[in-house]
Each structure stands twice: as C-alpha cells, then as structure tokens.
Amino acid sequence: MNLLSHSNQSIQQILKQIEGEWAILFWENNKSRWWAGRSYFGQRSLLIHLPNESCSSLSISSLPFDDIIFSTVDNNGKEDEEQESNQVGPWEELVTSSMFSITFDGNNAIVEEHPWDMERINQEEYRPFGSRLNKENLKTELVSQPSISIPSMLLDILMDSVKRRVENLPMPKNGDLHSSKLGILFSGGIDSMVLAAIANLTLPEGESIDLLNVAFGNGNFDVPDRKTGLDGLQELRAISERDWRFVQVNVTPNLVSEHQSQIQKLIYPRQTVMDMTIGAALWFAARGEGRVSDDISNNVYICQSKVLLDGLGADEQLGGYGRHRVSFKNHGKERLEMELDLDIHRLWIRNLGRDDRLISDHGREARFPFLDEKVVKFLHSLPIEEICNFSEPPGTGDKKVLRQVGKLLGLTKSVSLTKRAIQFGSRVNKVLFPSVPSSKINGSSMFQPTQNG
C-alpha cells in the first residue's frame, strides 16, 4: 500500500509484481479515482454491478448485495463457452485480464479498462503463463538440470508454494495456542494428500493440522469421501506423528434446508445445479463444525483456523477429469492440450470467485498452492506426456506426475485413487435431489430451490 501511495511507478506496474491470491480496491487520491482488480486466476472474489433499470448504482464488491436476480428459466443444460464469456445479470465476476479505473464527473461515473497486456486485450486471449497451444512458449528446464527428475522438481516447487502459504499463520480464532492454525479441505484424494504431506514438512513440529472432511446423509455418513479420508488419515500417521485432527463434518438434510438460501446467494452469479452442489459441500466443509474421529467424548469440534489449503487447480492442469481422457481417446493429444488450456484459464469465472465467497463466509481464507505462479509456469513448460499419460489406466496415467510426487512423499494407497467429484464423493447430490438418480442429475441446468425434495 505504501508503494501504491508514493511510488512513481504506475498502479498497474506495481500490482503486476504481486504474486498469489489478491484482489484490491484502491483510491488514487491525486487523480481522484478508484482502481479495482484481482489476480489473474481470480482467487479472491470481486464482482461488479453496472447500472440498470432496477438499480442505478455502480458497485464493486466481494459479495453481491441488493438487485440479485436468480434465473427462473432453465437453460436445458446448455452452458457453452459463449454463455460464460458474456455473463448475464446485474452482478458479474470482474474480469482478470485488466485493471479498472473509475473516475467521477458530477453524477456520472466513467469506467475505464486497462488491460495487463495491450497485445491481448480480451480475456479469452490473455495467457500470462503462455499457452499449451503455442509450442514456442514451452520452455523446459530439463535440459539445464538433466540429473533432477521431473517429479522431484515439481515437489520442490510445490514445497515452496505451500511454505509461503503457511508461514506466519494468524492466531486461531479463539486465541488458543492448542488450536490448529491450519486446516485442509480433505477428501483423502491425491490432491489433498499431497498438500497435507507437504504441509507436514513445512509447519513446525508440534502444531496440529485440521483435516476437514464433509459428508451428507440422514444418519448414515459412510460416504466415499469419508472412507478415503479415513484411509488417508492412516497414511499420514504412518509418515508423521503430528497431531492430525480428522474433523468429520456431517450434514443432514435439515441443515442443508436451513442454509440453502445463504449458499445460493454466495454462489451467485453462478446458478447451476453443479454450482449449488459443489457450493453446499464447500460451505459446510469450510464451516468446520463436526467431531474429531478419535475423540471418545464425541464432543462437537469447531475448527479455529483462519487459513485453509485448497487443492483446486490440480485437476485442471494435470488431466484429472474424466473428460480429459475422453478428449485424448477421441481426438488425440492436441485436443487434450486445448482442453487443459481452456480449463486453467476459465477458473476465474467458473470456480474461484464462487469458492472464495463460500469459504470466506466463515471468516476463513482459502489458499491455493497448485495455482502458485511458479507451479503453473513449471507445469506449462512440461511436455504433456510428462503430466499425464492416458495410455495408462485411471489411477495411474491421469495426474501421473502428481502421483509420482506422492510416492516421493511416502504416500501409498492414495497415489492410485481416481478422481471423484466432491458432489458425488460427499453425497451432497443425494440430499439436494433425494428422488433423482445421480446419473439423471443435469449439473449444467439452472438450480431451482423447489428441486430440493
């Protein structure tokens, strides 16, 4: 902030140097104008409301307020790229390819867009880490360091990423030194297991870590993510004597009904069934209220950590989704590269603003080690064959390089687990749509509150 107030550099030059998760609203006093912007991936929510017939105000906020219009028209499950690029509604995610300035002329506000890269003005064209589709941008470090394996190099970079996100953690909410300063959104899958194992190597010995594991049900919470989570807990205990607190967040249909309207407001302007199911799972997991698996007293435990690690970004970069395998099988390597390129560069509108609103609603801050600039740049530099190999079976070829990193960390069973979406692994879809088979739930259709049976 001192640089922004006193430096001779432009606002953009200063903000371009910031790494990690950030969003900013800044008043430039000498020119009487506001500046607004966010990190490229959009890890921090920032929404803009443009004046319209029902509300004449120009607003920029991390949360929508007033003039929230939920769609009452089903889109028949159609959610194509054009729909995402041209958001509809009074509130929109602020694009991340530019900074915005707002000056005032009497009662009029003048909004100007200032692209980070004047050669790539549109969001769809902006690729700060290069593109897998442009082979000239792919520069690997392997030639200069032939003796170091790719998994070892990735582990070193991930270690640095996690370390910078867990250094100087704030005190727990309750101020109790025995409470955990760090929580991890934890399913026991390869992404959260790698983050937990690396956090173990970077946090001081003696500090506990909360592993937040969410399950939905009506008395029975023996869901897939609970099973893999408990298995993962045993793996972590085999490699470290740290105090791992496995927090079983059990969510009943009544709890979902009680908080459904709040969750729907937080995911807005996203409105699909998939957004609601993912949103409900994230909101309750980040709430962190449950019972610790080993506590024989069975007392309610409330996570006190203000910081949560989130594994988002691993699937998008490493070929973790089933459709990545389908793209490779049906259309070859170039189509797979196109799919990965699209996935990582639309996180700002599909995922991250939404997730930040959901998690921060509990006074916690999500941090995303897989989206660290150095991690993304390194993964972009690798040939696709080093990242994933779909000639190998699921649990081996998908996210191949991350599975190899897991082995280096001493992980065992979890390195062979296949991808399972949180809405299926936690069984939130069964609670939101109790009478609809999972195979019949259309994730791209608009969520209607009356659908909750």
Fill in the keyword field for this structure.
single chain; 453 residues; alpha/beta; seven-stranded mixed beta sheet; four-stranded antiparallel beta sheet; 14 strands; globular
Task: Break the fold down into its secondary structure elements and pairings.
Blueprint: H1 2-6, H2 11-15, E1 23-28, E2 33-38, E3 47-49, E4 59-61, H3 81-85, E5 91-93, E6 98-105, E7 108-115, H4 150-166, E8 182-185, H5 190-202, E9 209-216, H6 224-239, E10 244-251, H7 253-267, H8 273-287, E11 289-292, E12 301-302, E13 307-309, H9 314-318, H10 322-331, H11 333-345, H12 347-360, E14 365-367, H13 373-381, H14 384-387, H15 400-408, H16 422-425, H17 428-432
Parallel strand pairs: 8-9, 8-13, 9-10, 13-14
Antiparallel strand pairs: 1-2, 2-6, 3-4, 3-5, 6-7, 10-11, 11-12
